[in-house]
Amino acid sequence: MKPVKVLQIAFTYMGTVVGAGFATGQEILQFFTRFGYWGTVAIGLATVLFVWLGAKMMLIAADIGAKSYEDLNKTLFGERAGRLVSHFMLCVLLGVNAVMLAGAGSIFNEHLGISYQTGLLVTMIGCYLLLRKGMNAILTVNAIVVPVMLVFTVLVILDTLRSPGAERWLQLESDHSPWAAWASPVLYAAFNLSMAQAVLVPLGKEIGDRRTIVAGCWVGGIGIGFMLLAGHIALSAYMPGITQLAIPMGGIARELGQSIQWIYLFLIFAEILTTLISDVYGLTLQLEERLGWSRRVIVAAVLLVCYLISQMGFGPLLSTLYPLFGMVSLGWLYLMIRRKAG
């Protein structure tokens, strides 16, 4: 077991799951904080699922020599159904990537005074250049982004502990059903794990060593849980007013001063970039198996399709795709739980 490989798995796992939705605070708010003190229990359950099923997914990928997430889905669902699930995932990943691109364009436009289209093109070119180095690029980018994310998380939690509402995460009441609170971490884990398989499956095959994979998923899963809890504690201190903000964590970052805001701005863009390169890489591997084209040509084609879709705004399409993908993700999670690893 190599400590460097363990950290590479952990950082990639954390960077893939803790994406832009997490960094904005909306995911934590919707899946955990709105349930009050039950949100803390829900985060504990989600953490267990991330440790257990993340390791299981990568071990299965290593055992079957999966080249892409389609190979894993065929193993879970069978040849025909697995291919259909993978096709559906391809559509959703294209949609998610288009939204990531649109988000990057908005950051350039709103915060740096650079045009939306220029922001899209700069992000696409950066993504293309990084993906020329394959999995190494994903590991390297996450090795930079995740430590910055951890620093930001620690600063937020330290500031929250000094605030009058520091204890609210243990006391906050909620009108929502406890059953909804129990279902929420399962849905959160199902959706994020099924999305993360685009990069975790090929990473599991590449690493191969079982002890390293398990240790990496323990560190990564606990790291995800820590950041969820830190965000939950911070957001709870500002409830219920924080729910009015489109980017709740941005509001908290403003309270910490301008330098922290710049760190946060970097973090949002970096999280978009890590999600983008991870998903495009997973799509590329699947399409490479099917089409036999050059990997660079496929990367360019996928980015071009995402660019075209990002011109549409994409809200109505996402509102249709996400609930559907949520249902498929629950089926995927059930089969992952039933499947034996090795």
From TrEMBL:
It comes from the Bacteria. The chain crosses the membrane at residues 35-55, 84-108, 114-131, 138-158, 178-201, 213-239, 259-285, 297-314, 320-337. InterPro entries: YkvI-like. The keyword Methyltransferase does not apply. The keyword Aminoacyl-tRNA synthetase does not apply. Signal peptide: none annotated. Keywords: Membrane, Transmembrane, Transmembrane helix. This is Membrane protein. It comes from Paenibacillus darwinianus.
